[in-house]
Amino acid sequence: MSIEEVSAEQFAQLFHNYHQALLKECGTTDASTSDTWADVPAEEKDRMITATRLALLEVELAPSRHEPRRYFAKPGEAEWGC
């Protein structure tokens, strides 16, 4: 599954689940977080989903750090001939 196929809600739920697992692993408890996604209040779910949408949008719009492949010429720059 690619990042394009993941909805913001699915991503927010996965983030919540991993966050809870890491809190338990570290022995940290936070009274403001719910153990399961189903226990999270609707208002908090909406806030997390919105934050996820914004984060995904930021990642999508961020300039790529990879250089274009050097062996491909830019349009109009290719040398043609034998």
Which key features would you list for this structure?
82 residues, mainly alpha, 2 helices, elongated
Describe the protein's topology.
Blueprint: H1 8-26, H2 42-61
Report the order of strands and helices.
Answer: HH
> What distance lies between the first and last C-alpha atoms, to the nearest angstrom?
44 Å
Q: Radius of gyration, rounded? A: 21 Å
Average pLDDT across residues? Answer: 75
Number of helical elements = 2
Structural class: mainly alpha
**Coarse morphology:** elongated
- The low-confidence runs, each spanning 5 or more residues with pLDDT under 50, are none
Strand elements, count: 0
- Proportion of β residues? under 5%
Helix content: 40-55%
Instruction: Describe the main β-sheet briefly.
Output: none
Give structural notes.
The chain is mainly α. The protein has a domain of 51 residues. The protein is 48% helix and 0% strand. It is built from two helices and no strands. α1 crosses α2. The longest helix has 20 residues. The chain is elongated.
Compose a concise summary of this entry.
The chain is mainly α and about 80 residues long. It has helices at about 10-25, 40-60. Helix content is about 50%, strand content about 0%.
